[in-house]
Each structure stands twice: as structure tokens, then as C-alpha cells.
């Protein structure tokens, strides 16, 4: 198996026993070049089994899942909403921009921000008109695409492409996921959840950042949120000193624990 980010060789890394109907033992492999770790067992399972696994997890955890993984979930969501509101105030985003929360789930972030942030979720039926349909997700038509706790669920290059292809030539991507210097070789690591299948490293994100032509990056520690800019000029409008700025991906998390 080759790394979908850099083409490096994926080597056996560790196994974890889940004992679930749709995922018994999960085998993880690690890229010898960029350190990306993927759940090989999940990558190689038929799509219908992956969907069944997601349903099985959803039924098991219901809505407590995010809180179980991350006790600071609600506080962080509020911090993210505040950050997005600030982006409009300082002119990084226009309130009439075309913006979507990709993988919005129950839509809490958009509800906190206001109707300018549309919602999309491939795994949810559309509960109201604020949710976009898959047909409405036109490539190269969005000024802003945010994904929160989505990147760890992606299954390879095609899924990454689906998200970044939505951006206009001067668009901004926002990402909240766990990105570490080195994925711990520890089956008890809290982040090894049954439906987490891709574990990102700083090196892998730097590759993606370059591949998709991003020119500048900002990281907000409190909101655990990266902004990736196609147009470097826009980053100069960020007023808040809480941002860490770089012309490359901001590799903030260097040592354990990673958040
Ligand atoms: Zn790699």
C-alpha cells in the first residue's frame, strides 16, 4: 500500500481490537516518509461495510460521541464560532460570501454563526433548507469551506479532493482535526476511534498544503482551527494576535499530548 499523500511506502504500524460487528481488529499502517497513518482494515473494506460501521458507532454512542472523545467539545465550538464571526468583522470573509460547513452534523456551528454559513452533511438527510444538497456543492464556487472533525474520517485522496475542489481560486479552507508531529504507536491512544481512519501529521499536511496551492496559513490555538489561504494577501487582515501565521502549514503540535 502506498501513501495517498506523498506516495511513500505504508508499513505495518499497530493493531487495535475493537470487537465490533463491523470492525473486529483494525490494522494501521504508517507512511515511512510523511508519517501519515491510516486504518488499512477500513480502507480495504467495502463501502457498504464502512457505512454499516458508521451506523453501528452512531447507535452505540449517539450524540455523546464527541463529548466522549473530547470533553472540551462545546467550549471549542463556541470558540470556533467566535473566531468565524471575527473573520467577517476584520474583512477576511465577507458576510455575503459563499461559505459552507462541510460535514456539519447537527449544524451547531452554523447555528451559532448565523445563516451566512451554510451546512452540508453527506451522511445526514437534510432537516431544513440551510443544508445544501450534494448537487449544490459546485466545484470552485466557495469562498470559505470549514471542516470540523472531518479529516480523520476521510478515506484517501478522493475525499480530500472533494473538499478542496469546492474552493474558488482565492478561497479559504478552515480545518479542525488532530494533527500531530508523530502518531503515537499506542493502541490505547484516545484518538483511535473505530470510525477514525486517517491520522494526519504535520509533514502530511505540509504536502497537502503545497499540492493544493495554498499560500498562507494561520492557526488559532484556542479554537484549534487552521485557516489555509489560496490568496496570501487576505491573511494580513487578521487582527487578532491569537493567530500564529506562516507561509507554510503551521505545524503547531510538536509534542505529546497533542491537544
Ligand atoms: Zn506519506
Description:
With 259 residues, this protein is an alpha/beta fold. It has a domain of 181 residues: 3-Layer(aba) Sandwich (Rossmann fold), CATH 3.40.50. Helix content is 25%, strand content 24%. The strands form two sheets. The chain has a seven-stranded mixed β-sheet with strand order 5-4-6-7-11-10-12. A five-stranded mixed β-sheet has the order 1-2-3-9-8. A hairpin with a 5-residue loop joins strand 2 and strand 3. 35% of the residues are buried. Zinc ion binds next to loops.
Concise overview:
The chain is of the alpha/beta class and 259 residues long. The protein is 25% helix and 24% strand.
Order of helices and strands: EEEHHHHEHEEHEEEHEEE
CATH level 1 name of the domain at 66-246 = Alpha Beta
Rg over alpha carbons:
18 Å
Low-confidence stretches: none
- Measured by DSSP, the beta-strand proportion falls in 15-25%
Content-based structural category: alpha/beta
The largest sheet is: 7 strands, mixed
Estimate the global geometry from the Cα principal axes. Answer: globular
Side by side, the strands of the main sheet go 5-4-6-7-11-10-12
Q: Helical residue percent?
A: 25-40%
What is bound: which ligands?
Answer: zinc ion
**N-to-C terminal Cα separation, in Å?**
29 Å
- Name the CATH superfamily assignment of the domain at 66-246: Vaccinia Virus protein VP39
In the CATH classification, which architecture of the domain at 66-246 applies?
Answer: 3-Layer(aba) Sandwich
The number of helices is 7
CATH topology tier name of the domain at 66-246: Rossmann fold
Round the mean pLDDT to the nearest integer and report it.
93
DSSP strand count: 12
